[in-house]
């Protein structure tokens, strides 16, 4: 059993509208002391949705990502609103970003993005039994929906427009999930 | 061809030792305007190393992640130092964090973590032909190295101590890479 470092002090060092930076002084169990910075958690978590069509294609979206100043292929995702559970949030974001609702949602995995400097987690939710339904969100423009056959996942992973680690991980996990689901129904 | 939004203005809104927050005013091609925040890029990028032993196991590390205030299973990783290329940085981090060097490095993929609010990218590098070699890094304590058979990847992905999306993505990609490598050598 590893003994966790002792947190000696937490200080807020910078704050903007979205981000809150904390400085943390730690003492490790061997006596070593370090001061780290991290982004403080906010909100109620986030969901990433893997929408799967009847014939086993995944619905990707192409959206503008200001961090890389370019359009990128990824999966629908968004913050969980106060009072929502993960599946309600997943269904709402899917309607806002891809124009589909889902009658069959299943949680795959809670993933972190960069646990060394932020606590942010996203829950990967597979969405099946889809039906057309669009909700107005706060998106500045309608997102392009790109249908991709899951048996061509390797080509997608090789595409330089598809880089988001959480989406890569989610699609591989969904392949395992669907293989298990189909072996159960055989 | 999608026309990128026009960047109207970039303002620095908060700054700490590690983080630099920018506010960006954008006008999308349909005329919609939005103001977003993002973390500015810094440094020379980062590498994540997937060390593969002779018999096909992966070497994971268990390290303390202050963002989640807990120990986590992940892959060795770190920032690229000025003047280093990706493979030099990968080999150095592998020596510092896992106590191994590699004679055979191959770049798998450049991954982003959260392109909607940061540009940070990490290059996944597979390391083979390993030999014991430890370099002193700036780690506060020696990291535990955990050997995991890649054919039990599904059990690892189900482990709540293994959450980092970039590491999940990297291990699935390395499985594809090794399958191709072994089919070539047959």
From TrEMBL, chains A, B:
Recorded superkingdom: Bacteria
DNA repair keyword on record: no
Gene source species: Neptuniibacter pectenicola
Enzyme class of the recorded protein, top EC level: hydrolase
InterPro entries: NUDIX_hydrolase-like_dom_sf (IPR015797), NUDIX_hydrolase_CS (IPR020084), NUDIX_hydrolase_dom (IPR000086)
The keyword Hydrolase belongs to this UniProt entry's keyword annotation: yes
PANTHER family: ADP COMPOUNDS HYDROLASE NUDE, UDP/ADP-SUGAR PYROPHOSPHATASE
Organismal lineage: Bacteria, Pseudomonadati, Pseudomonadota, Gammaproteobacteria, Oceanospirillales
Gene name of the encoded protein: nudE
Family annotation (SUPFAM superfamilies): Nudix (SSF55811)
UniProtKB keywords: Hydrolase
UniProt protein name: ADP compounds hydrolase NudE
Pfam families: NUDIX
GO molecular function: hydrolase activity
Cofactor(s) the protein needs: Mg(2+)
Catalytic activity, EC: 3.6.1.-
């Amino acid at each position: 059993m590893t003994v966790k470092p002792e947190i000696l002090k937490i200080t807020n060092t910078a704050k903007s509208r979205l981000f809150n930076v904390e400085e943390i002084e730690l003492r490790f169990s061997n006596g070593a002391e370090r001061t780290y910075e991290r982004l403080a958690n906010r909100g109620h978590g986030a969901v990433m949705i893997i929408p799967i069509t009847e014939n086993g294609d995944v619905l990707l979206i192409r959206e503008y990502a200001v961090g890389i100043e370019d359009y990128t292929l990824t999966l629908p995702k968004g913050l969980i609103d106060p009072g929502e559970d993960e599946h309600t949030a997943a269904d709402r974001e899917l309607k806002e970003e891809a124009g589909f609702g889902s009658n069959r949602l299943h949680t795959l995995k809670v993933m972190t993005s960069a646990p060394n400097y932020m606590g942010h987690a996203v829950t990967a939710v597979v969405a099946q039994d889809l039906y057309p339904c669009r909700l107005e969100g706060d998106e500045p423009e309608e997102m392009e929906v790109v249908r991709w056959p899951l048996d061509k996942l390797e080509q997608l992973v090789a595409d330089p427009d598809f880089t988001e680690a959480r989406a890569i991980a989610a699609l591989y996990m969904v392949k395992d999930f669907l293989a298990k689901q189909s072996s159960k129904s055989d």
